[in-house]
Write a structure and sequence with these properties.
alpha+beta, binds NADPH dihydro-nicotinamide-adenine-dinucleotide phosphate, 10 strands, 4-stranded antiparallel beta sheet
């Protein structure tokens, strides 16, 4: 087994990268074999996952290496179709590692379910009756899903809130390694008859909430000023601009939305790679961004001039799973968990949040210095070259030609490719 050196990883071919992973024994044998043979989700399994299946959609799975998180090194699998996302995450991870890496705090890990009651004659009487039977209701919820209780999880607490005509019953549930949608929904539905009886009202619906405020995770990182630029004045200016960019995202929802999209560029890619429900993570994150009534940026950046250090912090709900749903059905997802060292759900939630913070740092740094178009245009040119049908050896020269054009589009790429080929023939 050789220690994998990540320098130059980006310049290698996919096969060379696979060989490097093999030489470093980063994967278990079956996953390495699946990678060697490029084994994908079988169609008959896909057909069991959703309805009316006709084929599968492939997306690139890449590695953002060398994330130092809580003193341990991770190589993060990312599934994304967007150019420059993986490069940006890798760049940020490298800088942040030099300043000591990331730290994470898992504040809690419980899902929340709710039963919305309406048509109540007496809210006070209903509230008293329900709270009086709180322990019984918690144990009824647990009886509806005994296997999660056997695993050490289950319903933990119950509380109520009146919102206009609704009396809403909330229950927090420890779902262990699962995201818990089905576990929570089963429990909530089991509580409908006793809650209707106790409240003398009707239940409108019984379901989990994706606003997982009992599953908050924080990632932090500190960057030495010198890591921004060798030139002190330039680094100082950049640090000030990072802080301003962070403030802007707190004040302006138009910017906050794009700021958070950048965070989710990273998070979604790891959520997808690990077979998790990205709609659930997005919904929870955006709801948390609007928790005080205004939609704001999820991360904050501050600059301590005395210590010449930049501090970054990101907190959001992260009810991520390592069991349940489609995890375990897709061989590429199994490979992704293996590449991460098969972390448990709390550890994985921490990694997701670190990746979001890294992605945010890279985006803000680019935006407040060179702008993001410089890097994007090169990758856009590469996509256009591939779309125009350029072969591997033609991509490089075609990209160079495209970058010299005022307007880059597919028609230009096709015409430039034609002239390249004609020039080669003559
Ligand atoms: P599952 O329904 O697959 O339930 C997880 C199951 O995994 C458990 O019931 C448990 O089964 C098993 N398991 C094995 N080991 C463990 C462990 N260590 N800890 C916990 N469970 C374990 O998944 P979820 O309930 O998590 O639901 C997620 C799915 O629901 C996703 O596909 C999601 O897309 C979907 N969904 C999401 C909704 C939303 O977000 N609003 C709504 C509806 C569905 P056992 O104990 O019986 O062995």
């Amino acid at each position: 087994m050789t220690k994998l050196k990540w320098t130059g990883f980006a310049k290698k071919s996919p096969q060379e990268r696979i060989n490097l992973l093999k030489n470093a024994s980063l994967l278990q044998t079956n996953n390495q074999e699946n990678l060697d043979k490029q084994v994908e989700l079988p169609l008959d399994i896909a057909n069991q996952m959703v309805e009316n299946v006709i084929t599968k959609l492939a997306l690139p799975l890449a590695i953002a290496p060398d994330f130092l998180v809580d003193g341990k090194t991770y190589h993060l699998p990312m599934v994304t179709e967007e150019p420059s996302v993986v490069a940006a995450a890798s760049f940020a991870a490298k800088l942040i590692k030099r300043s000591g890496g990331f730290t994470t705090t898992i504040h809690n890990r419980q899902m929340i379910g709710q039963v919305a009651l309406f048509d109540l004659h007496d809210f006070e009487e209903a509230t008293t009756a329900i709270l009086h039977q709180k322990q019984l209701l918690i144990s009824l919820a647990n009886q509806a899903h005994p296997s999660i209780v056997k695993r050490g999880g289950g319903a933990r607490d119950l509380w109520l809130e009146q919102k206009e005509d609704f009396l809403i019953v909330y229950i927090s549930i420890n779902t262990k390694e699962a995201m818990g949608a089905n576990i929570v929904n089963t429990m909530m539905e089991a509580l409908v008859p006793p809650l209707e009886k106790l409240s003398k009202g009707q239940a409108l619906m019984a379901i989990l909430s994706n606003y997982a405020t009992e599953s908050l995770v924080t990632a932090k990182c500190h960057l030495k000023l010198s890591s921004l630029s060798r030139n002190h004045d330039e680094a100082h200016l950049l640090a000030q601009k990072l802080v301003k960019a962070s403030q802007l995202a707190q004040l302006d929802p138009y910017r906050a939305s794009t700021h958070n999209k950048g965070i989710f560029n990273g998070i979604d890619a790891l959520v997808l790679a690990t077979g998790n429900d990205w709609r659930a993570i997005e919904a929870g994150g955006h709801a948390y961004a609007a928790r005080d009534g205004q939609y704001r940026g999820l991360s904050q950046w501050t600059y301590d001039q005395k210590t010449a250090t930049i501090h970054g912090q990101l907190t959001l709900p992260m009810p991520i799973a390592t069991r349940g749903g489609s995890i375990g059905l897709n061989p590429t997802v199994t490979l992704a968990h293996d590449l991460l060292g098969n972390p448990n759900a709390k550890e994985l939630a921490g990694l997701m949040t670190c990746l979001g913070l890294a992605q945010n740092f890279a985006a803000l740094k680019a935006l407040t210095s060179t702008g993001i178009q410089a890097g994007h245009m090169k990758l856009q040119a590469k996509s256009l070259a591939l779309l125009a049908g350029a072969k591997e050896a033609e991509v490089g020269p075609l990209v160079q030609k495209l970058l010299n054009e005022k307007h880059m589009n597919l028609a230009t790429a096709e015409s430039l490719l034609n002239s390249l080929r004609n020039a080669k023939r003559s």
